[in-house]
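To: structure subgroup
Subject: Chain for Friday's discussion

All,

I'm putting the inputs and outputs inline so they're searchable in the archive.
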Amino acid sequence: MSTRAPRNWIAIASAEHARLGRDHRPLGFMQVGHGKGAPLKRVAPGDRVAYYAPATVYGGTDRLQSFVSIGVVQPGEPYQVDMGRGFIPWRRDVRYAPAQEAPIAPLIEAFDFVEDPKRWGSKFRFGLFEINDHDMQLIASAMRADAPSPGL
């Protein structure tokens, strides 16, 4: 078994969907790409994830543009859940930190992953992408959360 340093991820979903995962009990979960499994295989236990919501509801036009949750991926492999009507998405368990939702706008100029502030949203179309420790700390600070650690 190889050991690697925890990685940092931004996942993209509507706030409504991200909040469902964050508030699920007894343990939160993450889904990406409308339930696709392949992206979740890149994520490993101990990795940190922050959810960015472009809008409040899926397909919404309200331009929420905020981070809504932040947490640590828990042990275990991706798994499927039958949500009915033939929708069986892939998930990973995540322990979310207590945090406040925070707008992205004040952070754009400080992010390392943003190459051109005028086109800051280009990476978000992937649904899940990796960021460095500096950027994850910026998000955690904006959300008034401790930077999630594997022991969260």
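Points worth raising on Friday:
Strands lie at 8-12, 28-30, 48-53, 66-73, 79-80, 90-96, 102-103, 128-131.
DSSP finds two helices and eight strands in the chain.

D.
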